[in-house]
Structures are given as C-alpha cells and as structure tokens.
Amino acid sequence: MVKIKDIAAKLGVSISTVSKGLHGASDISEEMRQQVLDTAVMLGYVVKEKKSQDYHKVCIMVENMDYENINQFGYELITGFKLMAQEQQYQVDVIPMDVYTQMQQSYDTYMKQQSYSGAFFLGFEMSDAYMQQLKHTTIPTVLFDNYISNKHVAYIGTDNHIGTKSLVNYLQENGHKKIALLNGSKNSYVSNLRYEGFLAAMKDVGLEIDENLIGYGIGFLPETASSYIPQFIENGATAIVCASDLIAAGAINEIHKLDLRVPEDISITGFDDLPIAKYLAPPLTTIRQERFTLGKTAFTLLSQLISAVPVSTMLFHSELVIRESVSKVK
Amino acid sequence: MVKIKDIAAKLGVSISTVSKGLHGASDISEEMRQQVLDTAVMLGYVVKEKKSQDYHKVCIMVENMDYENINQFGYELITGFKLMAQEQQYQVDVIPMDVYTQMQQSYDTYMKQQSYSGAFFLGFEMSDAYMQQLKHTTIPTVLFDNYISNKHVAYIGTDNHIGTKSLVNYLQENGHKKIALLNGSKNSYVSNLRYEGFLAAMKDVGLEIDENLIGYGIGFLPETASSYIPQFIENGATAIVCASDLIAAGAINEIHKLDLRVPEDISITGFDDLPIAKYLAPPLTTIRQERFTLGKTAFTLLSQLISAVPVSTMLFHSELVIRESVSKVK
To answer: Which residue in B204, B294, B300, B312 has the most chain A C-beta atoms within 10 A of its own C-beta, making it the best mutation to test that interface?
Structure first.
C-alpha cells in the first residue's frame, strides 16, 4: 500500500509538505499542491478515512440535465439520492459540470482534493473527458444511464431495451406498421440502447426499419429532434416513438403546427413519465422511470461500491403507462 | 385491498375458517386449507406481517446445483445470503427443489402457506413450472442467473456477456483462430447469454463461427459436454471456451485420454473460478464469480424487492483470472 512517505520520496519533498498538499493546507504553493495530488493519483495512494464526524462526503456531478424543479428529469433523482445519503450521515454536494471544467483537472485529482468518497454522474455523454478517465479510476462512481467496464464503476437505470420494446409492441397491437424513432443524442449510451431495443422489437413483430424514419437530437430536448417531423410524415409514419417526454412534447407541438392531430393523424409515445406527461394535450402514453427510487437506490449502490462490492449494472423494470396519445390505425 | 372476508365470501365459508386456512391451523381439512390458499392467491390477498419476532422468513430454492461443500458452486452463494439475512434477523430455509414438487403445488401457494416473505432461486431452468409461474407472482423473488419480466422478480449474476468476451479476446491475443464453445444446458438462460457473448466477441475480433465447434451439455457437469472433444479436435479447434470450471475439468480429462496436452496442443478456459480451478493440471484460466459477495448482495436485493424497489437486473463485473491452461499458438 502506498504511504505518504512514498509520495514524498517520489517528489523529493518532506512528509509534512505531502500531508499539507493532501489535506488542502494553505501554506504551500498551489503548484506544489497540484504536484502532490497528481503524484498521489499516479502511485494509487488511498486517502485514509478521517475519524471526524463530518468526513463522509460524496458528490453528484450533473451535465446536460435540468434538476431545479420537480418537472425536470434530474430533480427526483437528486432528492432520492440525498435523502438516502443523509440517513447514512453522508454529506452530498451537487456539482454542475461542463466540458471545460473537465479539461482543467483530472477526475481522480478533483475527487481526492475535495475528499469525496464517491460520485453519482447524471447526464454525461460518452465523449466527455471524465467518462474516458473512468475506465481507469479507483474512485467508486455510479453512472445514471451510462456504462463503463471498471470494477469501481456501476451503471444504474431503467431497462431501456425492454421499455422500448414494450412501446413498439403496444403500437403494433394498435395496427401501426410505419413506426418512427425520434431518439436522443447520438453520443448518449442510453440513445444507443433505445435504438437497439427499437430494432430488436421491430424485428420481433415483423416490421421493417426505414432509415428515413430514424432521427437523433442534441441531448433529449424538445427543440432539436422535432425538426424531423415533416420528414417522418412525408415518409408515411403513423406513429413516433420519442426517446423522452420532452422530445414527445416538441413533436406534438410540431405536428399541431402542420395542422395535424395527435393521436387521430399520428400517434406519439414518450419516455420518462415526467410530471408534465399527463398534462400534455393529449395526455402522453410513456414509459415510467421511478426517478425518486432510482436516486435512493443509486446511493445504496454507491455504498456497495465503497464497500468493494463489484456491481456493474443495476436495472429497474420499465412500466408502460397508457394514456391518450396513441390511437388504432383505421 | 383484498380482505379475509372477501375470501370467505368467495368460498361461502366463515371468516374463522379462512383465517385457520391461512394460518395453518390443524382443525380444518387439508382440502379446505388448500381451497383457502388457492382463493387467497387468486384474489391477490397479501398476508399481514405478524408482530412476533420470529416472523421474517425467506427461503433459498435450489435445483440442478451442488452446495454441500466449499468446492461446489452453490456453497458460497448460500453462505453469503444466510450471513446477510441473519444480520437483518431473517430466518433462511434451504429447500432442495425438483420438477415433481413444482407440479404438486403452485409457487405462490407454497410461499404463502410457509409464510415466506421472499425467495432466492438457484439453478432453475427456463422450462421449470415455477419459472413459468414467476411471470405473474407478487412474491419478491431473486433469481441467480435467470431473468423474468415482472416487477416483483430480479436477476442477479456476473456479467456473462462481457466475461465470455474477455475470454475470447484473450485467446485471440494468443493467436487462436479456431475457438470452440463447450456450453452448459440449452435450457439455461445463462448458457444463452454466454453463447451470445461468444458470437459477439468472435465477430468483434474478426473470427469465424464454425457450428461444428459449438456444443451443449446437460447442466454444467463435466461428463456431458466433454463428449464433444473428439469432434472439436477433428474440426481443428486450438482452444475451447468452457461454460464452467467443471466442464473445463471434464474437457481436460478427455483431452488427456486422447494423448494430447493442455495447453501445448489445445488451450482450455473455464468459468466460475471454483476453489478447485487453481489445482487442476494445468491450473485453469477462468472468469471469477464473486460467489460469496453475490450471495450477500442477493439478500440485499431481495430486501429491496420486499420494500417495493422494482429492480430488474443486478450484474457484477467479471474478472479474468489468468493461470496456465492457455498457450500461444505456434
């Protein structure tokens, strides 16, 4: 096991300098502190648990996801996580993250510097610097809707594959044959899973895939993917599977602009069951994600990683919520 | 919510008769007790939690799996599960199960009659009656290496897909091109996952699948699958991926009978990392399954299902353990 004296020897400085660097003392230079942290990471030094009551700290890093109020996707995930963490005497910091910050300092260095025992990642894309660095981290990290092959990293989410299949099956039972997919970002792990689930389900029920009926957005926002609507209609789509409730809201809006009706002219499904889903016109048929319970369970999962349980994947059953945005094909 | 009086009304008997039937009293006929239980199941009656300290009982149902001593696959799964259950004041009964018993009484009726809050299934095949009944059960049930789409049922296991891929990748890095798969039972969910992982990995590294190099056993026992060895050798296999350490042990034995050497003439890999794996001649390269931790976590997962957390799937990272049963192709 790497000790403080090993870091000191490597850098040719005193043990007390290393100790100051590791514990954030103010009487050494920022440059030296960075060198100490980088060397600690390089040698695989593990910060010892402090005895003080306020030690346990974890963080939630959020990118590309809104979480300010209950109508937004991240809100209940974060509330659930915090609730469970507080029960276990953990402090939780929510950290908005962006591409630029990720280039300033490596993930491991950041986490050690802030004395975080672990993190919960929300909304990251596969191309993010921190996602790349997670392949080699030793810091317990739980990802919402993302997968990395490393025993210190676990993936939690709803079973997207089966969720998407149950939407396609439901549309097919209602007589739809030309079914379009309005997906999230191409850089998103979960978009890929939903695309694969869509292909598998279409194959299972004997329907053809038309490449003109597949579209991708930037993120999962209403504005972006809905630009595909005219193309889908031109190519004969009678139903559109949307990768989020927000995309579905954008699609409905776009369809109304073209003087068409949902579901009489075209059926729409969402994903997530955000609080807004039942208030859309028409109320949205969608897949429910148990965000509050997912958030609580994400903390349990992070505790398991911290206890060296090598969990890779934890999925929730998906539940089809039938409302009024799908009609039978005449 | 269904009450005792609803069951009584349905059967046209008194409330006290129903109560006796539900609580196993001896002064009603066996036939009446069975009718009460069947009706309770049909109506979806939920047994109320008793206040007595000894109430909490769960069971482990085992079929097609040995667990008597530490060298056998089920032993640590069961020990881990029991340890965690005892910490939480749960009593655990281990119930050997067979096809015949499953035909005598339905799963839900059995569980209600015995007042079990939930069960952990080991070694069941997809064709088993209880596996079929799990599609509609409301009893929290955790399956090792099996999947059922029902929010009261969860699957726990090692990531078989990635485990099998890492074996194929390792063999390919050692120059193997003609790689055979000696799989477990065709009725096993996990055999299917390992087969799919094998296909995907072979495709990824640009190797061809030869149907003459694929074999299935009865269960995961050494005797059955190893009958494929002469066929594999005839068809030019230089390496055999075995779906369990026991199958690998059988394969090595069979190869020695043909006066060939492992790994000089043919490389062999296992799956599980049973205690015996490192004592085989040669010591076996395999995928480690953290059976003790899987068992402990299976109980945590069952508690989550009992608390209505709709977990579908929990997978552990797989770890390649390199020993001496694989050599480079000359």
So the answer is: B312
pLDDT of A30 above 80: no
Given this model, what pLDDT does residue B47 score?
Answer: 65
Distance of CA B120 to the CA centre of its chain: 9
pLDDT tops 60 at residue A277 = yes
Question: Residue A4: what pLDDT?
Answer: 85
According to CATH, the topology of domain B162-285 is Rossmann fold (3.40.50)
C-alpha–C-alpha distance, residues B168 and B204, integer Å: 10
> Quick check: A310 and B297 CB within 8 A?
no
Q: For A94, phi and psi rounded to 5 degrees? A: -100, 125
Band (A38; pLDDT cuts 50, 70, 90): confident
Between CA A256 and CA A278 the distance in angstroms is 18
Mean pLDDT of chain B: 91
Given CA atoms A161, A163, A169, A171 in this order, what sign does their dihedral have?
Answer: negative
Predicted confidence at residue B52, as pLDDT, reads 47
Mutate to test the interface with A, among B313, B319, B320, B321 (most CBs of A within 10 A): B313
Confidence of residue A282 (pLDDT cuts 50, 70, 90): very high
Residue A53 has pLDDT above 50, yes or no: no
CA distance B62 to chain A (A): 24
Minimum mean pLDDT range among A79-88, A146-155, B28-37, B95-104: B28-37
Residue A147 to chain B, least CA–CA distance (Å): 11
Tens of pLDDT along B45-99?
876 554 444 468 999 999 989 999 888 999 999 999 999 999 899 999 999 999 9
> Domain spans of chain A?
1-48, 160-287
The Cα–Cα gap between A119 and A91 comes to 12
CA B330 to chain centre: 38
Specify the CATH number for B1-48; select among 1.20.1090.10, 3.40.50.920, 1.20.1300.10, 1.10.260.40. 1.10.260.40
Residues of chain B with pLDDT > 70, as a percent, come to 96
Say yes or no for a CB contact (<8 Å) between B315 and A312.
yes
Distance in angstroms (rounded) separating the CA atoms of residues B311 and A157: 10
**Which of B290, B304, B310 lies at the smallest CB-CB distance from A310?**
B290
| CA–CA dist B312, B269 (Å, integer) | 30
Q: In whole angstroms, what is the distance from residue A242 CA to residue A210 CA?
A: 16
Q: Which two tokens stand for residue A210?
A: 């038309």
Tokens of B223: 């005797």
Matching residue, tokens 């296992």? B270
Q: How many CB pairs under 8 A join A and B?
A: 65
CATH architecture of the region A160-287: 3-Layer(aba) Sandwich (3.40)
Q: Higher model confidence: residue A249 or residue A23? A: A249
| Residue B48 confidence (pLDDT) | 59
Does B312 reach chain A within 8 Å, measured CB to CB?
yes
By Cβ distance, the residue of B296, B310, B316 closest to A310 is: B316
Residue of A151, A159, A319 lying closest to B313 (CB–CB): A159
A154: closest CA of chain B, how far (Å): 9
Residue B314: which of A149, A293, A314 has the nearest Cβ?
A: A314
* H helix or E strand, kind and range, residue A141: strand A141-144
